[in-house]
Amino acid sequence: MPESYSRRANAVLLxxxxxxxxxxxxxxxxxxxxxxxxxxxxxxxxxxxxxxxASPDDLRRAAEKRLVAGPxxxxxxxxWAVKAMQALYEAEAEAEAxRRRLITTRDLFLGLLSGTxxxxxxxxxxxxxxxxxxxxxxxxxxxx
Length: 144
Prior knowledge:
The chain is mainly alpha-helical. It has helices at about 5-20, 30-40, 45-50, 55-65, 80-95, 105-115, 120-125, 130-140, and strands spanning about 5, 25-30, 80, 100-105. It has eight helices and four strands, in the order βαβαααβαβααα. It has a two-stranded parallel sheet with strand order 1-4. Strands 2-3 form a two-stranded parallel ribbon. α2 (about 30-40) crosses α7. The longest helix has 16 residues, at about 5-20.
C-alpha cells in the first residue's frame, strides 16, 4: 500500500488547495486537481498528451473553463468534493498496482481519468484524452 505522495505530487496537492482558496470556494474539485497538474508542467503528463496528440494548452483551457469562483466571503474550512476524493483513491490504486510506495503525479493523472463525471473528466473528454488511450500509451493494464 502506498504510504505517501511523491514530493512533486504533494506540491501539486498543495497547489490544488491554493487554487481553490484563490477562487474563494470551500472545496477542492477534480477540475482544480487537473489544473494544478497542468500548471506543474509535469514532464510525464506532457509526454502522454503529446503521444495522444492532445495539446496541453487546450487541456489547460478546458480545465480553466470549469474553475468557478465563489463569493469572496467564503473562507471556511476546505473540504474535498466526491470526484476529487475518488481521483485520490484511484491514484492510490494505480500506485499500489505498480507496487510503488509513493503516489506520483502520473498516478494522480490516471486517477482523474478514472472518473466519468466532474470537471476534470469533462475537460479531458473535450480534448479527446481517455483512460484507455493513456493506458495504451503507458503500456498499462487496469489495476485489480
